[in-house]
Protein: Pyrroline-5-carboxylate reductase
Organism: Saccharomonospora marina XMU15
Amino acid sequence: MGTIAVLGAGKIGEALLSGLISGGKPAEELLFTERHPERAAELTERYGIASVGVAEAAKRAEVLVVAVKPQDIEPLLAELAPLVDSGSLVVSLCAGLPTTLYERKLPDAVPVVRVMPNTPMLVGEAMSAVSPGRYATAEHVRAVEDMLRSVGKVVEVPEAQQDAVTALSGSGPAYFFYLVEAMIDAGILLGLPRAVAEQLIVQSAVGAAKMLAQGSEHPVLLREAVTSPAGTTINAIRELERHGVRAALLAAIEAARDRSVELGKAHEA
């Protein structure tokens, strides 16, 4: 992919840089932009990657990975517009922002690939979904997928599904963290020390995730294997259903999808 510049070295931006380094990408072929000097110096010391301005990044890099907050996208694209052309590849990691926004703000024929990653990128276990824009070729998509495999797994989806992806896997880790937090509190309520409750729940989550990842059985079958007749688990499941946990989760994910749509519409003008 040549030189890659990450525009915005927050948690996701740093995670991508770290994954690329771990995957064998030379530090000399990586750049990043960061508006806070202390943060920039810290990352350069940690990874040996140069911190540059946006203009320098656009001049030196073939791939520009946009990892800023959605509210910061307009000034960044205004700065990029006179600096890029069809030889640049723009990769958007910004939630809710469609490729048409980039195509409208940047010169004609600049290829854009939209990506929805998630925070397990920090530990090399991201789930990322990619969607090509109007000018992105299959080769561009393959290049982006290869880049993202250094930090997890990748799937290609039509861009129309990206808001759903954002709600499901982009925000998904927060749902699991919320559930783990509640279960630890339940352990404390039942008289367990916090450290013990946390160890029990976190390891249970790790084991359950590994069983799911094997993919040999449907989640329903895995749950049923734990649910003995007249046992403890079926009593717990009955209470979850009685309190509408499944319906609440469906509603929560729909709300996240709706917010992703709103973020995109905010930049339609």
